[in-house]
Fold this protein.
Amino acid sequence: MIAVHELGLCQAIVDATLSRARGRRVTALRVRIGGHVVDEAAVRQGVQVAAIGTPAEGARVDLLLEPMELHCPGCGNTAPVSDHMALIACPRCGGLDIRLSGDDQVLLESIAVQASDEPSEVP
């Protein structure tokens, strides 16, 4: 099931894709999601749903997830953030004095559009 924050993310991805496509049929898109704890399958499905009725309908969605990393000075644990609780407390010791690092941007890296019979990459 897709969460509310993921719905907005998916719609923003489709909006950016359509803006870059300028009316051309989109066959694939590649998105880098940094920092955000998201369900990859839910985001992929959400983009597909948000694209229904647009030139991006049915496009392949490639996601590159780059989770934030947490460091706990209390126990020395360093690990990728894999769930929302790890944004609040160390999963090993429960310590609240954690440090987070990493990029939290969402970037539409590329789209592939169909100009005629051949798809082409649009950076």
Remarks:
- The first strand starts at residue 25 and ends at 35.
